[in-house]
Description:
The protein is an alpha/beta fold. It has two domains: 5-284, NAD(P)-binding Rossmann-like Domain (Rossmann fold), CATH 3.40.50; 287-486, N-(1-d-carboxylethyl)-l-norvaline Dehydrogenase, domain 2. 47% of the residues lie in helices and 10% in strands. Strands 5-2-1-6-7 form a five-stranded parallel β-sheet, sandwiched between helices. It has a three-stranded mixed β-sheet with strand order 4-3-9, sandwiched between helices. Helix 7 runs antiparallel to helix 8 and helix 12 (323-337) crosses helix 21 (478-486). The relative contact order is 0.10.
Amino acid sequence: MKLSDATLAQLPEGIARPTYDRAALVPGILHIGVGNFHRAHQAWYLHRLMQQGRALDWAIVGAGVRPYDEAMRLRLAEQDYLTTLIELSPDAISAEVVGPMVDYVPIAEGHGPLIDRMARPDIRIVALTVTEGGYYIDPVTKAFDASHADIVHDAAHPDSPRTAFGAMVAALRLRRDAGTGPFTAQSCDNLQGNGDILRQTVVGLARMQDADLAEWIDAQCTFPNSMVDSIVPATGPAQIAQARAIGIEDAAPVCHEDFRQWVMEDSFCAGRPDWDRVGATFTDDVHGYETMKIRILNAGHQVIANAGEVLAMPTIAACMGDPDVGALFRKVALAEIVPHVRPVPDMTPEAYVDLIDRRFSNPRIEDTTRRVAFDGSARHTGFVLPLVRKALEAGLPLDGLALVEACWARMCEGTREDGSVIEPNDPIWDRLTTTAQAARHRPSAWLEMSGIYGDLGQAPEFAARFDHWLGMIWADGTRAALKAYCGRA
Length: 489
């Protein structure tokens, strides 16, 4: 059955579907970056509210800022912006169709349609999922990177920006001038203090254009910090086939694990849906939750993905099922990450490690090692290296973290141990590969990438252990290094 509003009543029995009148929905949220995660997470929470007859004036308008986003817009438009969500728990598969999205802004150079849509008064929240590396921040200092070519362009061409942030600034200028008022800008990316970082980027860019506008945005708009969590693999032929197997022809279905979490500050200048009625958490301590998640889950992904890629393991579940890579995760997490994580209500760091172990090991989640290893230059600087700095400051163990960085350097050399080629998997892949090849014979070359490591290369404890592990990996193989660290040799 081809998915559409007209066929909802004809979907196979047992598949949940919208019970609300989608024709009566009114937009309230514009979301930039309509990928799988957004549709399985934020859109799902809104869908659950709508199933209760609530939040019907908070429907989603999708948007994007890259040419490839147009393909997604067309796919979703063909099926009335509906999405099939397929939940993959370890022992069962279930499906539901969700429908809180009602439109998708056409992609255009200069983002005129996007600016116009955000400027309309019905949009009260502009949310984003644009990846951790998409906020134009210096990877070491975390300050706004005003020198980036995209930002320089947007500062000089405020009416025809390249970036989502330039479009937001342009829309906010129109709203201020028209008396429409501000909107809440809500980051849904895996960044610690993601609302603060989004404020820094938007206000920083606005200040390069118009100091008065920047002050108005800073004073009037809200940028709530949040923590989002669910494992959502990319969609490919296998996922489309899964949807067909349950009786739905969906051009963009989404598979996801049987776990979601959304924690956020209650700071919304123009109102918000009551997401807490369907499981979201509003708290003044987002930092505690996000620290636990970013340090154990996100850093944990990097702990295993690079070693798994070098050893040709296709999925994260396969990595966890490997005795050496799985042991690496547990030892690094418990010995070198947990000491830097404090409990949150109803969850200790040790219990969270057990939860993540189970989630990563779910065999039904075909989350590719390649996807998790993507953009290591952003993910290691964001998730792993802060832990190295914490360990150095506290005089705590960092041997496993040094091994993780050595595995990343080995992966970036560009080949697996079986001789196959690792295709480019980072925005600066060429630079990483050249440096990794040099580090094979002189490990310190890797740590000399100051744009990533800052002064960590000058920390003797860390540099010595990195040198040791990278030397062992090249001499004896990645598995030998993992066994040595885990005491399994």
